[in-house]
Backbone:
């Protein structure tokens, strides 16, 4: 994980989690069509949107959602059965943490399926929801998702040093202006490792 850029970690963990689900190493019920929907964000245009508070794109996504098994009544529930309650849920700051109206509260026990609803109605929250999903279903998910967030660069470097050996070097992928040399030298001094003897640097650029 430390070999990845921060922006790539969620993508990598998502791929890992979904692959483990496919191989049945993680016991999460889902259908291939649901996975396809989540990944591709499908829409089905052409149906007039009756809800003035809901963007047309979200309504088009709902029309695609109701073609999936177990979601057939979702659009009707939104439009006719409880539009105000769905509106309240839609306007929540953290909808991923709130129960959906009507019988859709059952999705609290079906976290993958709840992602599909968020994908339709609140795509701005899908990244956060996906992170929470991974924390809950992936073994040691929180450690993967939140690793190093409370660590300084020095802490991370110390831990990386413990993982290294003469056959497992430490690589630094640097952004412009970053220079870890002083931190590395500090660790070397602390461990009485002399530059040019037990400590070597090499530029790969």
Residues:
């Amino acid at each position: 994980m430390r070999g990845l850029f921060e922006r790539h970690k969620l993508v990598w963990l998502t791929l890992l989690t979904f692959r483990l689900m496919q191989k049945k190493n993680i016991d999460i019920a889902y259908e291939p069509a649901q996975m396809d929907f989540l990944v591709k964000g499908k829409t089905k245009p052409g149906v007039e949107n009756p809800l003035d508070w809901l963007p047309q794109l979200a309504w088009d996504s709902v029309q695609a959602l109701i073609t999936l098994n177990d979601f057939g009544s979702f659009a009707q529930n939104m439009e006719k059965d409880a539009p105000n309650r769905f509106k309240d849920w839609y306007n929540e700051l953290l909808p991923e943490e709130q129960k959906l109206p009507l019988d859709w509260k059952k999705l609290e026990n079906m976290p993958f399926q709840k992602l599909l609803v968020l994908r339709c109605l609140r795509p701005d929250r899908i990244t956060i929801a996906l992170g929470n999903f991974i924390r809950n279903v992936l073994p040691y998910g929180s450690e993967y998702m939140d690793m190093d967030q409370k660590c300084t660069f020095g802490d991370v470097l110390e831990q990386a040093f413990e993982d290294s050996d003469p056959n497992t070097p430490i690589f630094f992928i640097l952004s412009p202006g970053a220079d870890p040399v002083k931190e590395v030298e500090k660790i070397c001094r602390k461990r009485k490792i002399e530059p040019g003897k037990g400590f070597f640097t090499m530029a790969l650029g």
